[in-house]
Amino acid sequence: GGLQVKFRAKGKIYFGTCADPNTLNIASNTNVLKKDFGQLTPENSMKWDATEPSRGNFNFGNADTLVNWATSNGKLIRGHTLVWHSQLPGWVNNINDRNTLVCVNLRQNPLEMKVLISSKLQTTVIQNHAQSVAGREIFNEDGSLRSSVFSRVLGESFVTIAFQAARKADPAAVLYINDYNLDSANAKVRGLVNLVNRVNQANPGTIDGAGTQMHLQANGAGGAQAALNALAAADVKEVAITELDIVNASANDYTAVVRACLNTPKCVGITVWGVSDANSWRSGSNPLLFDRSYNPKAAYTAIINML
Ligand code: XIL
């Protein structure tokens, strides 16, 4: 079996990757998706600049293509991303009053998104235990809240507002907070854990899960287990590795990360950020499990052998 089948046999939910229409058009890529991966995350098509480029004008063309492909091929879907400082359309960045940002964007926008994404995404979510990502990359490296249009206008309350809006829009979705550089038990991990605990103590059950992206450097997997342990100790039901890629993709680095998830009961899955080095956002560092001809690399074989 491929990665998904073997990972599931170990009690995990998914071994996933990212995709979008541009990579779904490549037959050698979709062959790998069908065989090895059980979950798809839209690489760009559900970001705010893609879904609502100007206020009130929604575009779900690419997102629907991804959802349709995943649904017809029996793949789970991980939504990505609802509220994030990056890849925002200019009109959101320029909002500076609280009511507009809360009422129009954080409260209403997810509701509209749900209506417009339509029953397609909703049934997929319900039937396939899909996951939604609500808060992303909101911390500075020292664990404090990062400056963004959201934190500047609303302070920390935007986190609760966004999660409550997402919950209302889709009660079946599993809602994650997610960030990068959560690769060891560092200050940023502590900041995230403290925020999650504050939010969930004030409003129990607001945040379901914590995700660590894990865009790692070569030999950078040494802290993965400590990071997952710390995240899993927060007041969350589950944790996940959400965007894994590793410079040079050594077998040792990859197996260390997979082992860390296997050893963490709350870790439900791993998403690698792409299939082939040819299509990676870090293409120059060859960070993925398949080479430019879509053939499995040594790290792939090492993972298969350990599962
Ligand atoms: C990246 C995509 O892979 C690129 O195609 C795009 O140009 C920029 O965004 N953290 C995230 C992802 O949360 O959404 C980013 O994806 C990589 C960093």
TrEMBL record:
Pfam families cross-referenced by the UniProt entry: Glyco_hydro_10 (PF00331)
Catalytic class of the enzyme: hydrolase
GO biological process entries: polysaccharide catabolic process
InterPro entries: GH, GH10, GH10_dom
Reactions accelerated catalytically: Endohydrolysis of (1->4)-beta-D-xylosidic linkages in xylans
Coiled coil spans: none
One of the record's GO molecular function terms: endo-1,4-beta-xylanase activity
Span of domain GH10: 1-306
SMART domains named among the record's database cross-references: Glyco_10
Keywords, in A-Z order: Carbohydrate metabolism, Glycosidase, Hydrolase, Polysaccharide degradation, Signal
Superkingdom field: Eukaryota
E.C. no: 3.2.1.8
Similarity comment text for this entry: Belongs to the glycosyl hydrolase 10 (cellulase F) family.
Protein name: Beta-xylanase
Organism per entry: Candolleomyces aberdarensis
Phylogenetic classification of the source organism: Eukaryota, Fungi, Dikarya, Basidiomycota, Agaricomycotina
